Amino acid sequence: MEPNKPVNPYQSPSVDVISASSDADAELINGGRSVPAGNGLSWIGTGWGIFTQSPIAWIVCAVIMIVISIVLGFIPILGSLISYVLFSVFVGGLMMGCQEQRNGRPLEIGDLFAGFKEKAGPLIIVGVLFIAASLVLLLVAAVLFMIFLGSAGILGALVSGNAESLSSLMSGGAVLSVLVIGLVILALYVPIAMAFWFAPCLVAVQNVAPLAAMRMSFFACLKNFLPFLVYGIVFFVIMIIAVLPFGLGIFVALPLLYASTYAAYRDIFLAE
Asked: Cα separation of 29 and 191, whole Å?
């Protein structure tokens, strides 16, 4: 706060803040703050503004990320694990690029790799933790599915090769049970997504430790359920539109996703 700036005695109590390492005009709110539901839409608008400042660089970065993802997809199991780690670092680099855009420099293609130069270690840890959490969830899903197969008698029918019995079991409530298990798994994945949504940005831009960044990200998403609901619905529509023109719109939708994430980070975590 500026020393000569008048203070409004009727303003609401401020939240706890900690020093921000890369914003001279802002302080980092520990744990984030709640914002109005309509801000979910404004994040996309702000993200679009960030994208249109350097559209070519953003699109090239998106192409590079997609190509790397496709190439790694040809490597069984290990390719997916490497992809998760790399993309954590890539996202951190793009968040740093957004910060540079805010400071007046256009986004550069090299910003995609900036995370490897400055924050590789912490960002890799974020990626590894995401893999670990996903593997635990996958294990839980496998256990639930095996329990279901055993209790429904489907596993026995599969082992015995009794096609008639298997068909009879599947025609009952088995399909509905599988859908319920799927919803349970999805519900378990949501907290993981919440913990990692802002983590690369907090690590790369604010030098927050990986575990602390995950904690802050989780609680920030939790207290902003309505804005994220609005954001998710609107972005779902955007993704549908993006895949219609032969999927070419994804090269705009992907940069918009990351740019709007940076916009949400500033809205929720920074007291300016």
From this structure: 21
